[in-house]
């Protein structure tokens, strides 16, 4: 059930794989950002993600990013990459 909620049919391979939803991928990115700043306090980070994921993070997770930047005295840059695509997950 959780897999259906966090993925959808891949438009590139016409259903032979699943693609993480925008929300699921954004959560994964945020967890990786948090992990990075915990391991390397003070080291700024630039994250390149697909446009829809960048917009989601900047619109719904901006407060979390700002809190991390303030707490660890670093800069977190989210870059929307128009050439990046969410990769299918094949089982």
Polypeptide structure, described:
The protein has 91 residues and is an alpha+beta fold. It has one domain: Hypothetical Protein Ychn, Chain: A (3-Layer(aba) Sandwich). It has four helices and five strands, in the order H-E-E-H-E-H-H-E-E. The longest helix has 18 residues.
Q: Quick gist of this model?
A:
With 91 residues, this protein is of the alpha+beta class. It is 48% helix and 22% strand.
What number of structural domains do the residues give?
Answer: 1
What is the H/E order?
A: HEEHEHHEE
Helix content: 40-55%
What's the CATH class label?
Answer: Alpha Beta
Low-confidence stretches: none
Q: What is the name of the CATH superfamily?
A: Ribonuclease E, catalytic domain
Q: Count of DSSP E strands?
A: 5
For the largest sheet, list the strands in their spatial order.
Answer: 1-2-5
Mean pLDDT: 82
Largest sheet: 3 strands, antiparallel
- Rg calc: 14 Å
CATH topology: Hypothetical Protein Ychn, Chain: A
- Percentage of β-strand residues: 15-25%
């Amino acid at each position: 059930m959780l897999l259906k909620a966090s993925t959808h049919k891949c438009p590139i391979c016409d259903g032979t794989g699943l693609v993480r939803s925008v929300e699921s991928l954004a959560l994964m990115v945020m967890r990786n950002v948090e992990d990075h700043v915990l391991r390397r306090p003070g080291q700024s980070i630039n994250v390149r993600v697909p446009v829809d994921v960048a917009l989601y993070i900047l619109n719904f997770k901006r407060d979390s990013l700002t809190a991390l930047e303030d707490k660890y005295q670093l800069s977190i840059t989210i870059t929307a990459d128009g050439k990046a695509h969410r990769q299918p997950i094949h089982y």
